Amino acid sequence: MWTQTVETTLSPTIIVEECLGDLSIQGTDEPRLTLSLRNGADALSLRREGETVSLTLRADAHLTCPRAARLTLSTVRGDLRVRGVSGPLTVGAVSGDGLLRRVGPLTVGEVYGDLSLQGAAGEVRIREVFGDARLQEVDGLLSVRAVRGDLRAAGLRGGAAVESVGADLRLHPPYIPGAEYRFGVGSTARIVVPADASVRFALRAGGRVRSTVPGLSLTETKGIMTGTLGDGQTRIEITAGSRILLLPEAAEEAEWVAWTGAEDIGAFVEARVAEAMALLEARLDESLRRVDSEEIRRRVEKAAERARQAAERYAREAGEAARREAERARREALREAERARREAERARMQAERAERRWQRASGRRPEPSRPAAAGEEILRVLRLVEEGKITPEQAAELIAALEGK
Prior knowledge:
The protein is of the alpha/beta class and 405 residues long. Among the domains are: 168-285, no CATH class; 325-405. It has five helices and 27 strands. It has helices at residues 252-260, 265-288, 293-362, 375-386, 392-402; strands spanning 2-7, 13-19, 23-28, 32-37, 44-49, 52-57, 61-66, 70-76, 80-85, 89-94, 98-103, 106-111, 115-120, 124-129, 133-138, 142-147, 151-156, 160-165, 169-172, 180-185, 189-193, 199-205, 209-211, 219-221, 224-229, 234-240, 244-248. α3 runs parallel beside α5 and α4 (375-386) packs antiparallel against α5. The longest helix is centred in the C-terminal third of the chain and has 70 residues, at 293-362.
């Protein structure tokens, strides 16, 4: 692993214009930027103007930087991991997954995998997550345009405005007095409500809306279920395509399974398995990073050799198929030439018979006929077809000419 260190202030501006692999960033208390790249110095382009450092990374990279650094990550082609950076963080596009821990104010464009955020000291704005999202401990307002998969949110102290959740929502407390929580959900929403909460609800669902929270009753007005718990200092507004369940913290999982019924137990178990698999994949990924690089190189070379052998087999099979096709075409050409010769011979014989009948009927003496084409000349024409020098159609014309047609 190649490493380079750049001295900075405690709050530099760092711009990663592009990272072609995975990128991990760790905040430190030291006034310096340290870069570690898998493929050495050739994988790095660095420009510095005052306290702004611009980077292009053409391999997997790990950066340590001052905690208060202002970070802009325009494009990350792999996975992104950021920990312990309190300065403003702007992320353009991440092709893989995003894992963010203890960051400051955050702006995210697109994450094409899953996004996990735990701890943000400021406002969080996210345009779109194409996988699942897990967002926890956000001090400022959370604004999200779209999460294509499931969203699990907890500890949104500044409120939330989430326009679209493609699948399910799981919302956990605390709910801060004076804050608003608004979600548009494509499938099912589950809201966990503490016993001492002070919340007003406005709920609209394509299926059932049900509450098992003690002291909370819901009434329907023009398709909207409303209810208040405590003084109602926090507003929660949910629109869901399927069902909405409000349940107390103490019986969250049990109430969920009992309410959804037998038809949803499979989905519930599937969700638990998915969480376990995600944990396993994370541990496996960490283990693979410790695998000896020489072993990885041997595996890559072995895979490349298998690919080369497969390509050679394909080329041999393709060449043999082409040879068989050429032989079949040659035999077909010979058959066509022979059929043309026979047709010409039949036509000549029919013409001769017609000529003799006309002579008998008219009493005229036969005129000397033109000599028939010699057998050697016809064989020569057929050999030209076999050698591929003329086509069967050309051979038929030559034979007809030899026959005086």
